[in-house]
Design a protein that fits this description.
CATH architecture of the largest domain: 2-Layer Sandwich
Radius of gyration: 23 Å
Distance between the termini: 27 Å
CATH class of the largest domain: Alpha Beta
CATH superfamily of the largest domain: ATPase, nucleotide binding domain
CATH topology of the largest domain: Nucleotidyltransferase, domain 5
Strand content: 15-25%
Number of domains: 3
Strand order of the largest sheet: 5-4-3-6-10
Helix content: 25-40%
Shape: globular
Number of strands: 15
Largest sheet: 5 strands, mixed
């Protein structure tokens, strides 16, 4: 079984390979033109450099594709002949496919059109998000494209074992529907709780009632696939940083509001803030008042206890299963009672965000789940409270918005865990390259 580790999955957690950093690698060490006097000492180093360069190119195409060879040469610092060798190997392995297009990055404007490079739509990851009211499973193709989502609603918070059983059944159904040449590289799980990065176990998911549960190990044993697990909000900010609005932002703070409360994640300078044990970002337990209700962890007056999806839905006459209609209902005229609850929650959310702006000084705040719905319902009111509760110079620099990935954000982030090993070492994956392999958007199930 392959387990997640922060070091091993650095291609997923650190943007240095795929978010714009220029790579300086010797072309000589890749294209076979190494002087004879160095051959004895380089030995395995040649393979190491080749793997590194393949990783860099595949990660770039995965995060930013479709691209042209000229784009890859400019971004990596490698010459075109080296890029051709690397790209051809990725194509031969079935990880990258070509399509006709015009090379806008090239000075050549006439002649045969260049071929654009796409991540293969047949390389897939399974993404899982267990919540107290449902288990959601997604199929995500290389390139971060969510191809299909299956939501299995539950009457109560599932135990870890039941969540695994449900997930296994859904995955078996997915596998039966996939094209013959599709390949699943693994499973990533976005957990609403404290998750151990080393072995994928869940230390504490209070809403689910999970404590010290060996989630990754059990799910791997049941499905026969490698499994990685991490905190859902950490994966949300990862996805938004790689594929969404945080891609070109120095510091992003993400808050996710769901059935299992509120979680957070912070990326600064391309690095995830994880803390000593990997549990940093539990911003739902950020205290904003003395006294008050207790949250799922037993703490009083926290953001999670004051800003609640269930309380918001009740004020609007909705149930948990109606959450997909939340934006629509909030856009309609509201009762005085509902408006009072919205105002109260917006005030509490803005107070917490103001303190977070002062602490983290982000360029961008991304509000996911029902928190994004509150933002759209009362954008000016929320921004006004944040401004009142933070230092003026810091607030002036921050933007507040919903994730570009919207409801897909957690599943795309979970899939990034599963793609991590492939991106780190593409030579470990040999997929037969066939003409039937198509660009990302073409998978049908």
């Amino acid at each position: 079984m392959v387990l997640f580790s922060a070091k091993a999955a650095s291609a997923g957690w650190n943007c240095s390979q795929g978010c714009g950093a220029k790579v300086s690698i010797s072309d000589e060490a890749v294209d076979g033109t190494v002087p004879d006097r160095f051959r004895k000492t380089l030995g395995s180093n040649l393979d190491s450099l080749r793997v590194h360069n393949l990783s860099t190119i595949l990660t770039r195409i995965h995060h930013d594709g479709p691209l042209y060879r000229s784009d890859l040469a400019a971004a990596s610092g490698l010459n075109r002949s080296t890029i051709t060798i690397l790209v051809n190997e990725l194509i031969d392995r079935g990880l990258v496919v070509e399509a006709n297009g015009s090379d806008e990055g090239s000075k050549k404007s006439v002649g045969r059109p260049s071929m654009s490079l796409h991540p293969s739509g047949r390389i897939l990851a399974i993404a899982v998000n267990p919540e107290i009211d449902a288990i959601t499973v997604g199929v995500v193709s290389l390139g971060g494209q969510l191809q299909r989502t299956i939501r299995y609603e539950t009457d109560e918070a599932p135990t870890m074992r039941r969540a695994v059983k449900i997930t296994k059944a859904i995955i078996e159904g997915i596998q039966a529907m996939l094209p013959a040449d599709a390949r699943i590289v693994g499973i990533g799980v976005a957990v609403p709780g404290l998750t151990d990065d080393i072995d994928g176990s869940v230390a504490l998911a209070p809403h689910l009632g999970w404590r010290q549960e060996p989630l990754a190990r059990v799910l791997a044993e049941e499905t026969g696939l490698p499994v990685w697990a991490a905190n859902d909000a950490h994966l949300g900010v990862l996805a938004e940083t790689v594929f969404g609005g945080g891609a070109h932002v120095g510091s992003t703070l993400y808050l996710n509001g769901g059935a299992s409360g509120i979680g957070g994640g912070v990326v600064s300078g391309g690095i995830m803030l994880k803390g000593a044990m990997g549990f940093a970002g539990e911003l739902g337990h950020f205290r904003i008042r003395s006294g008050g209700k207790r949250d799922s962890a037993g703490l009083q007056g926290t953001l999670e206890s004051e800003v609640s999806r269930d309380d918001l839905l009740r004020s609007l006459g909705l149930e948990g299963r109606d959450v997909l209609r939340l934006d629509e209902v909030l856009a309609a005229p509201r009762s005085p009672e509902a408006q009072d609850e919205i105002d109260r929650q917006v005030r509490a959310l803005g107070t917490a965000l103001g303190s977070m702006v002062t602490i983290f000084n982000p360029d961008l705040i991304v509000l996911g789940g029902f928190l994004g719905s509150l933002l759209d319902a009362e954008p000016e009111r929320l921004r006004r409270v944040v401004a009142q509760e933070s230092l003026a110079p810091q607030y002036a620099a921050v933007k507040i918005r919903r994730p570009e990935l919207r409801d897909n954000i957690l599943l795309v982030g979970a899939a990034e865990l599963a793609f991590g090993a492939l991106l780190r070492d593409p030579t470990g994956y040999d997929v037969v390259a066939e003409s039937s392999l198509l660009p990302v958007a073409s998978v049908e199930m």
